[in-house]
Write a structure and sequence with these properties.
The protein is of the alpha/beta class. It contains 24 helices and 8 strands. One of its GO terms (molecular function) is chloride channel activity. InterPro entries: Cl-channel_core, ClC, ClC-type_chloride_channel.
Length: about 600
């Protein structure tokens, strides 16, 4: 027995594998669509249920102090109460995060992207619990925040938990994170198509058939669960609108340029600067609470998600000062919270602010060209989509959200013009690569977007590894060597003393040696001393992807890895061998 608890015989998998083992084996390859689709439906059910619970908890908390239990009715609160609520909220969030390490306080969409990029989609439980607390307190406390960030984090983490519980390969975990993301957006907005595009464009950053189909099923299932409880209406009412004339297009382009500039400024302002990090935590959180309280004294429309304010913007015309406060004040408060370390969701606020800014531009156009101008509501919707596309650098997700919220395909023509111009202006004017990517870059992180690593991350190690492996101690008798070679292994994994990593040896070298007349009298063989091709080995998990294997090869400076898995506590067995050549050949062939 070696230190891996393996007898001296060739590793032979049982003829009849348990059903779960077969399931995992198929998920390791790129041809795992049926299994992934089943998991996608399960992910959608779980995420949809979690969103129902989250919204229920929000409504339950609102019963304590909000008029009619409406979590967005800040306008109807007494002025002292709506002013003190943000101060209470930042205090509660600060107390929760005070003793936590920085990594434990990361939540929301940025955290999901980071875990997907560098941890293969494994989501920590502590951050998941923090998301519940911070998400509910921020929304009930009147901070400028949305519920989409919590929806995505809660759904992605729960979906990842499914995969981790089933011990699925990491390439399947990545798809499950995308499923949870799409289902979270679909359940929150009731926009399943936008959920799919958002997951692929913003979080997973790739489009593949293997990813698309499970994500579509998850998004659809999440939306169905939400509709069973809250009905089929979107998150806010959108009136039917029509572009009055093509003469609006030049002004739409001007509006998009303005929104692109504002969006880029928002992303730039939300990045924490060096001087901000030097401030104590209590000082930064207090500044956020005071800023929200000060603006809420006159304009409570900047508090909370703002979907009630968004509906009023779309169906009626708020006063000019309210539009300005929502367009610029809500964006500024959201950016200030992010920059000062208060983890709030941004998607809801940028939609509301974009609609308000679009309305301002529409009113100005109606004043300049009253006979030709379309309704300001048209500009509201275009502003909403343009702001979302420019801030996230996700034009397709913004257009799909616009289409599903309006149920009006005629809005797509001006929508495409507005979104593309706004995205280009933010990208070129501010070198903006998207809010979440910019935030990660500012932390010294660089998301995985190289084509090689993206391709390798879709396939797990078992799909490529050499399974014809025998394990052996360093010294063998002739009879033991004959028994070992009877199974015709390709590789021998030789155990070493002092818990050193094993060494790989081509079995053909030992076979030739035993047939050599010069070694016929040898009764014992030292596998680390006999002539033969030996290589240093480094470990890799059976659940790992080829991208992880490629990084492990470079990290240890070796060309061969041994693949191990845990069969019982403290017992790790070797399942196969994977070489650098095998990985490179797979990439070239595919």
């Amino acid at each position: 027995m070696g230190r891996y608890g393996v007898p001296l015989r060739r590793f032979r998998p049982p003829l009849k594998r348990p059903s779960m083992e077969v399931f995992r084996r198929r998920l390791a390859s790129v041809d795992a669509l049926p299994q992934l689709c089943v998991l996608g439906v399960l992910s959608g059910l779980l995420t949809g249920g979690l969103m129902v619970v989250f919204r229920g908890a929000l409504e339950f908390g609102a019963l304590a102090f909000m008029p009619d239990g409406d979590p967005e009715a800040f306008e109807r609160l007494a002025v002292p109460l709506r002013v003190v609520l943000p101060l209470i909220a930042v205090a509660l969030i600060g107390l929760w995060l005070w003793r936590m390490p920085t990594s434990a306080g990361k939540i929301g969409i940025g955290h999901v992207i980071e875990r997907l990029t560098y941890h293969q989609g494994k989501m920590p439980l502590r951050n998941w619990i923090t998301q519940w607390w911070v998400g509910l307190v921020a929304l009930l406390g009147g901070l400028s925040a949305g519920r989409e960030g919590p929806a995505i984090h809660l759904g992605a983490a729960a979906s990842s938990w499914i995969g981790q519980t089933m011990r699925l390969p990491h390439n399947s975990l990545r798809v499950l994170v995308g499923c949870g993301t799409a289902a979270g957006i679909a359940a929150s907005f009731n926009t399943p198509i936008a959920g799919v595009i958002f997951a692929m464009e913003v979080v997973m950053m790739e489009y593949t058939i293997t990813g698309f189909m499970p994500v579509i099923l998850a998004s659809t299932t999440g939306a169905v669960v939400s509709q069973l409880v809250y009905g089929s209406q979107p998150a806010f009412s959108v009136p039917s609108v029509q572009l009055a004339s093509l003469f609006d297009l030049p002004w739409i382009a001007v509006t998009a340029v303005l929104i692109g500039l504002v969006a880029g400024g928002f992303v730039r302002f939300a990045r924490p600067a060096v001087w901000q990090k030097r401030l104590p935590m209590w000082g930064r959180f207090l500044a956020v609470g005071v800023a929200v309280a000060a603006l809420a004294w006159w304009y409570p429309q900047v508090q909370g998600m703002g979907y009630d304010s968004l509906e009023r913007i779309l169906v009626g015309q708020p006063t000019l000062d309210v539009l300005i406060a929502v367009a610029f004040g809500k964006l500024a408060l959201t950016a200030l919270a992010i920059a000062f370390g208060v983890p709030v969701s941004i998607i809801g606020p940028i939609l509301v602010a974009g609609a308000a800014l679009g309305t301002l531009c529409g009113l100005l156009w109606a004043t300049l060209m009253p006979e030709l101008a379309s309704s300001p509501t048209v500009f509201s919707l275009l502003g909403m989509a343009a702001m979302m596309g420019a801030v996230l650098q996700a034009p397709l997700a913004a257009l799909m959200a616009l289409l599903e919220l309006t149920h009006n395909s005629s809005i797509l023509l001006p929508g495409m013009l507005a979104v593309v111009i706004a995205v280009l202006v933010a990208r070129q004017g501010y070198h903006c690569s998207g809010f979440f990517i910019s935030t990660l870059d500012n932390q010294g992180l660089h998301p995985l977007q190289r084509p090689l690593m993206q391709a390798l991350s879709r396939v797990a190690v078992p799909a490529v590894m050499e399974r014809s492996v025998a394990r052996a101690p360093r010294v063998l008798s002739r009879s033991q060597a004959q028994e070992l070679l009877a199974g015709k292994p390709t590789w021998l994994v030789v155990s070493r003393e002092d818990d050193k990593p094993p060494v790989g040896l081509k079995a053909a070298g030992l076979a030739r040696l035993m047939l050599d007349e010069k070694w016929q009298d040898e009764s014992r063989f030292d596998l680390l001393e006999i002539p033969g091709q030996r290589v240093d080995l480094a470990p890799i998990s059976l659940q790992a992807t080829l991208s992880e294997a490629f990084e492990q090869l470079n990290k240890y400076g070796v060309d061969v890895l041994y693949v191990e898995h845990t069969t019982a506590p403290l017992i790790r067995k070797i399942s196969g061998i994977i070489t650098r050549d095998a990985i490179e050949n797979y990439y070239r062939n595919k």
